[in-house]
Amino acid sequence: MAGLLDLPAELILAIGDYLQMGTRQIPLPFHELGDAYRYAIERDPPPSSKSLHSFLLATCRLNSLLQPLFYRDIFVRRYGHVGAPSPLQQLNRSLEKDPGLQEHIISAIIPCDDSIYDIHHFFWFSNIRDLTIHKFSDWEPLEFPNNSHIGTSPVECLKLIDCGAHEGALAAVLSWPASLKTLHYDAEQGEWEGHIGDEPAKTWTCAAFVRTLQPQKTTLVELTMTRPPLVHEGLGNGPRIDLSEFMALRILRIYHVFLCGWDAPHGVWKGLPHSLEVLEIFYDDTELTEFLSETDNLEHDNFMLDLIQHKRVHLPYLHTVNIYSTETVPNSETEEDVLEGSWRLAPSLLAREAKSAGVKLKVWLGYGDNQDFEKPTFSSH
Q: Looking at the record's lineage, which domain of life comes first (predicted)?
């Protein structure tokens, strides 16, 4: 039997690629992604990743073959061993020692413990396209000698998880990519209440977030807006979002609290761009608002019927609407709550209007084992 070093390069790369499978992301419903990142960044890397690193250090041949694979998708956990440099510090030292390693990095998931200053250089790695940052919470933007850096980063997909960065700092970071196509903004709204001295406390609003996103309004194709789990109901509610000027936007995944806010349920469609094709909504505050609303004796939350009825003129390309809510519904046969699953729209005005408008409308209600809930119904995001 041939030894590992006797194998052709193609087989060695295939083995390395297999060992990397443990670090790849599995498809999840969009409202579970933030929790997945929060969980993973606190954990040790999988054993397969350590095995790949061992191969990397074995011989010069394996190092030259596997180094691009090892650095292709970077995942940096938050904490290291007691008394040792943090994983992020170790990575930065490796990159400083051998700047050529930067060219291998296509995607990176990294923590931001102190300031964006510690990681901002990742934005300008020559081949990076996908960057996930956990806990970017700066209050002020970084200072640069001039504005020559604006619009020069090759990052096309940016995920900001547990992001409490204030408006100025957030706007600065969102101005760096040359052409941002995908953004996941997981808003840590409470962080905006922080202030210095006698400065008035600021409040997070959808309007402030939209202002920060202006440099990307002609390029952004996909936007996901979530937030960490609520401490109690009613937090962070305010005026609804207005994305009507984002005419490249085709996919919007958003929490109900951002899409509808505390405004009247009619007219939500006015804040959506004509280009929109897919809309996904999650009700994360069901103590305050549920999809199965009894308001005005309607079966469903009023805003959706109003949106569907204005689809033909104002949202001509919209073809898919998915709704998720953790609320439970009673089973008429067992008189017990159905904890999770796909809920079929009974013949109703909403169902008829959706079909007539050419919209594929699906609703998932309840909660349960996320993996079982996901497999039969969710495709890769």
A: Eukaryota
Q: How do beta strands 130-134 and 222-226 pair?
A: unpaired
Burial (CB count within 10 angstroms: exposed 0-12, middle 13-18, buried 19+), residue 376: exposed
Tell me the C-alpha distance between 136 and 152, whole Å.
Answer: 20
Q: Is 62 helix (H, G, I), strand (E, B) or coil?
A: helix
Rounded to whole angstroms, the Cα distance separating 269 from 311 reads 8
Residue 364 lies in a domain: yes
Query: Phi first, then psi: what are they for 117, rounded to 5°?
Result: -60, -35
368 closest CA partner among 308, 313, 327: 327
The whole-number pLDDT of residue 256 equals: 94
Q: Measured between alpha carbons, how far is 292 from 299 in angstroms, rounded to an integer?
A: 6
Q: Are the CB atoms for 78 and 134 separated by under 8 Å?
A: yes
Structural domain count of the chain:
1
Residue 373 lies in a domain: no
b/e map 353-369, b = 16+ CB within 10 Å: bbeebebebbbbbbeee
What's 202's DSSP letter? P
Q: State which residues form the domain around 301.
A: 269-368
Contact in structure between 225 and 183 (CB atoms under 8 Å): no
Residue-wise pLDDT tens digits, 264-309: 888 999 999 999 999 999 999 888 888 876 544 446 678 899 999 9
Percent over 70 (pLDDT), the chain: 75
Distance CA 150, CA 89 (A): 26
In a domain, 48, yes or no: no
Residue 49 lies in a domain: no
- Residue at token pair 């007691």: 82
Residue 162 exposed, middle or buried by CB count within 10 Å (0-12, 13-18, 19+): buried
User: Nearest-5° angle of CA 40, CA 42, CA 46?
Assistant: 55
Identify the band that residue 346 occupies on the pLDDT scale cut at 50, 70 and 90. low
| Average pLDDT of the segment spanning 225-237 | 81
Do 283 and 256 touch, CB atoms closer than 8 A? yes
Helix (H, G, I), strand (E, B) or coil at 140: coil
3-state secondary structure of 235: coil
pTM of this structure: 0.85
Average pLDDT over residues 206-227: 98
